[in-house]
Amino acid sequence: MREKKIFALGVIMVAVLLCIFAGCEQSEEPARTPRQEHPAYDGTIVAVGDSLTAGLRVDESEAWPAQLERKLLENGYHWRVVNAGITGETSSGVRSRINWVLKLKPDIVILETGANDGLRGIDPRILGKNLDETVRVLKKSNVTVVLAGMRMVTNLGREYTRSFAAIYPAAARKHGLILIPFLLAHVAGDPSLNQSDGIHPTPEGYRVVTDTIYPYVIRAVEKRKAGAG
Fold it and tell me: Which of 58, 94, 98, 205 has the fewest CB neighbours in a 10 Å radius?
């Protein structure tokens, strides 16, 4: 079973690499989560990330930030969720625009980055430094950070894969962050939950991603209510 999962993830990453080199272009502007008018929000959550957050090739209303806002409202949490995902972005890109993100006045930032770093074989230490600086800027502004973990497949080399995966829990421990162990848990490797490229979720796949993210976001919301950053 483990070998089948590794093979499936390997196929996914090959598909992604083909997509990148075939000309999947980076968007100039982050996606925006459409929302219905609501009388009042208790706070703002900004989802920062790459195409997995932007919702490549699905309607914006079906990307996980929009689904998360609906789920929060349905459960009595009146929080706005802004989709600030940019397709093709690396952790260096996130670091360079984090001050722009702060202009959105977030109380909570869900930080999803690193997949494109891994696919390009960027040294995991660079990812770690970019996460450190990004989180430092956010925490300085009293933003609660929820960090979404990412994983690479072993065909990139066991040492690289191990080093890459270790960056996220290390950053969470260092900065006291809420950590989602793996954003694509229960979605990666499942053809029924992914688009034809094998990596970007379908609307149903994003529903599963939303369910994965949700309890960690509730922890962040409760942390804000308790007055902790």
Answer: 58
Question: Higher-confidence residue: 51 or 6?
Answer: 51
78 is catalytic: no
**How far is 186 from 210, CA to CA, in rounded Å?**
11
92 is catalytic: no
200 among known catalytic residues: yes
pTM: 0.84
Per annotation, catalytic residue among 50, 51, 107, 117 = 51
Sorted by sequence, the CB contacts under 8 Å of residue 44 that are 6+ apart come out as: 79, 80, 81, 82, 104, 105, 106, 107, 108
H-state helical runs in 141-178: 158-175
Is 50:14 a contact under the CB 8 Å cutoff? no
DSSP 30-82: ---------S--SEEEEEEESHHHHTTTS-GGGSHHHHHHHHHHHTT--EEEE
Question: Alpha-carbon distance 133 to 45, whole Å?
Answer: 20
Catalytic choice (91, 107, 117, 200): 200
Q: What are 60-89's pLDDT values in tens digits?
A: 999 999 999 999 999 999 999 999 999 999
How far is it, in rounded angstroms, from Cα 57 to Cα 63?
Answer: 9
At 120-141, the pLDDT tens digits run: 999 999 999 999 999 999 999 9
d(CA 199, CA 207): 15
Rounded-to-integer distance, Cα 92 and Cα 179, Å: 20
Tell me which of 27, 61, 141, 197 is the catalytic residue.
197
